[in-house]
From TrEMBL:
It comes from Algoriphagus boritolerans DSM 17298 = JCM 18970. One of its GO terms (cellular component) is cytosol. InterPro entries: Cys_rich_dom. This is L-lactate dehydrogenase complex protein LldE. Residues 16-96, 141-235 form the Cysteine-rich domain. Signal peptide: none annotated.
Amino acid sequence: MLKINLLPMKTNSPHVALFIPCYVDQFYPKVGIASLELLEKLGCKVSYPAGQTCCGQPLANAGYERDTVGATRHFIELFKDFDYVVAPSGSCVLHVKDHSPSISGLEKEQEELHHKIFELTEFITDILKVEKLRGSFPHRVGYHASCHGQRGLRLASSSELNQTLFNKAQKLLENLDGLEWVELSRTDECCGFGGTFAVTEEALSIRMGKDRLEDHVLHQTEIITGGDMSCIMHLEGIATRNGQKMKFMHVAEILNQAIS
């Protein structure tokens, strides 16, 4: 029988608001469910504020930051009273923390929110202080380090910097029984998605995605995972059109499945 190390639910457990990005809500609801279940297994009291909308990142990235003021104000007002806000998306978290417009009259609440919103693996390792998850996932897993999470939130070390190697997702995944962590030739190269970049620079975006997939194929990756389903969606679309028989899962799905 599988032994599971879980944090006991306490009366003072952090009250976490789960923020689910638009594309996850629309196309990958199982990722949202897995995130909720995983956080609850780790002892958190989790709420899903039903009034949540887009954080505004797509508009801002397209040059329409002025049109995201309403979404930003709504986001702050909806999430400001929770202990933490957690999202299974590094890019959305980075936008809220560093790139959303300043909201007049909510400066204090916005600053506080910047310090209590976290990407999922970051929250588990840095706030919950989980050192090791016990469970089983007997597959060869290749990790895609998304640019915003890696270089913006510092979820993993970057090859261009002279620094000690680290990867917060790997820390959680590599101790699962049977999981083989695939070491890629180019560990932190962009997949080419980049939101609207995939639309405005389609050919270049696809070429970059093919390059990332070729690295995984070369190293016999069975399942590609990552912390941003936008990047995973991009890679999965290219793989499907090319007839490449890889599987794709968000890191939340793997962790939740492994310890269930």
